[in-house]
Amino acid sequence: MKTLTLPKTVFAALLCGVVALTVTACSDDKPEKPTASASAAAPAKPTHNPNPFDHSGDIKVTDSEKQKFEQEFAAQCVAREVHNSGNPEDKARFDKPCTCIATFLMKDLTYQEAEKFLTEHENPQSLRIKYENAAYHCLQEKTPPKEPDFSRPAPAAVQ
To answer: Which region ranges are annotated with the description Disordered (predicted)?
Structure first.
């Protein structure tokens, strides 16, 4: 079997051709940077929040809006539950859990959620998720039974 050998000059020519094609293919299509006078007129503004969990710049919900939300949400909740039960006398039974859920939601209410609920009469998805968490928290009336502790041996029976 015959091995193919390339002369050093052919190898060098191929290497130079690859380098030349690579360098010309990497052109810079960016526009020229503006002059100093143009950039002084418009200060640079960050395009995005570097910390997406930092909500310190968000609009705060006032206490009156929170109270209005709590009252309207509780009234809507009671009306929905009474409608679903079919018995208008159940209103007193649903009043306490619905008020608890509304209070629980009010503590973590954002401006966008309050605006959607109070002015646009919509329930945003984030409010639905918080509602499920609040309902789980508020509707646990009984404490679960205490589980047995298997780490300690049972005391010996007294004779």
So the answer is: 28-59, 140-159
